[in-house]
Design brief:
- By secondary structure, this protein is α/β, with parallel strands linked by helices.
- It has two domains: 109 residues, Rossmann fold; 192 residues, Rossmann fold (3-Layer(aba) Sandwich), CATH 3.40.50.11900.
- Helices cover 45% and strands 15% of the residues.
- Helix 2 packs parallel to helix 3, helix 4 packs across helix 10 and helix 5 packs antiparallel against helix 6.
- The structure holds iron/sulfur cluster.
Length: 313
């Protein structure tokens, strides 16, 4: 099974259906101890270096060149120039599903065409189960950390549908789940710190929404056409007002008390902070990360201060 690296959300339905094994190159980064030599955003710089040095071994690469990340366009080209067969994938900014469909067809040609159409439905079912995990953590039945680890892995479904299905079977109820009274939405790109959700929970900030991982779980389709119609509404690739409209509904539904906007050093999404603050009517804490590792003490202090601020408001 050829291993297909992806730099951001690329419908895993299509990769599995074409006989490939998706591998999200971002997923190794929070646990890595890599400090890249030449970087803007650490996420793209680290996977770029690891790909060029063949520390991540893949057969080919799909770079999301039009959509949610501008740094990936350049770092993806550097990886391509090292000899990895690479395809550049573009989302429609205006949500045109016909354009999305044409992108999916061109991706199919790169991957060698659909050989296992049954994978679409299998993944649709798995994503339904993934949505239940999200619901359970909203209701405090499992911890935010456990839910996050599952939801974020939906970008590539762990490269193995059976393995992913087994991972969905969370049996251990989290003792602290549901106790934290401060219901928090985590918006922006996911934190580069591998323990962030557990740290927040230990400070009584219960994360009940993860913006980007929720995009991974909510988009799907039973065939290429359905995938095109659904994924063209991937909020991170659409205009900001579209994304904010979606966020407003989701935050209200989940009855959040506050919002943490995670930004990454040298990421263009940081520029959105001002608008998100204007448009979302909640207490908002903006934090910025850079290199992977544990959540720094300084950020823990800011989380504590935020909890106090919510308690007073
Ligand atoms: S944090 Fe920003 S710049 Fe870095 S990979 Fe994510 S979207 Fe791209």
């Amino acid at each position: 099974m050829p291993k297909i690296g992806i730099t951001a959300l690329v419908p895993p339905e299509l990769i599995f259906a074409c006989g490939g094994q998706p591998y999200d190159v971002n997923n190794v980064i929070p646990e890595s101890k890599k400090y890249p030599k030449n970087k803007l955003c650490a996420w793209t710089a680290i996977w770029q270096e690891m790909l060029v040095k063949r520390e991540i071994k893949i057969d080919s690469l799909i770079v999301v060149a039009g959509g949610d990340c501008h740094n990936a366009l350049v770092d993806g080209q550097k990886a391509a120039m090292s000899g990895i067969p690479t395809h550049f994938f573009f989302y429609p900014f205006d949500g045109d599903h016909k354009y999305m469909e044409s992108q999916l067809h061109s991706l199919c040609s790169f991957l060698g065409d659909i050989k296992h159409p049954e994978k679409f439905r299998q993944i649709k079912e798995l994503k339904k189960a993934g949505q239940l995990i999200d619901k359970k953590r909203v209701n405090g039945k499992i911890s935010a950390g456990e839910a996050f680890r599952i939801l974020v892995s939906i970008s590539d479904l762990m490269g193995d549908l059976d393995k992913f299905k087994r991972a969905l079977d969370i049996k251990t109820p989290h003792l602290n789940a549901g106790i934290g009274v401060n219901r928090i939405a985590l918006i922006g790109v996911p934190p580069i710190y591998h323990d962030f959700h557990d740290v927040a929970q230990s400070l009584d900030l219960q994360i009940v929404f993860d913006e980007l991982p929720y995009e991974f779980v909510r988009h799907t389709g039973a065939d290429l056409n359905e995938v095109a119609k659904d994924y063209c509404n991937y909020t991170f690739a659409r205009p900001l007002d579209f994304r904010i409209g979606f966020l407003q509904k989701e935050l209200e539904k989940r009855k959040v008390d506050g919002v943490i906007h995670y930004t990454q050093f040298a990421c263009h999404h940081t520029l959105e902070d001002e608008i998100l603050r204007q448009e979302l009517d909640y207490p908002i804490l903006t934090i910025q990360g850079d290199l992977p590792g544990k959540t720094p003490e300084q950020i823990k202090l800011r989380l504590e201060a935020f909890r106090e601020m919510i308690a007073r408001s």
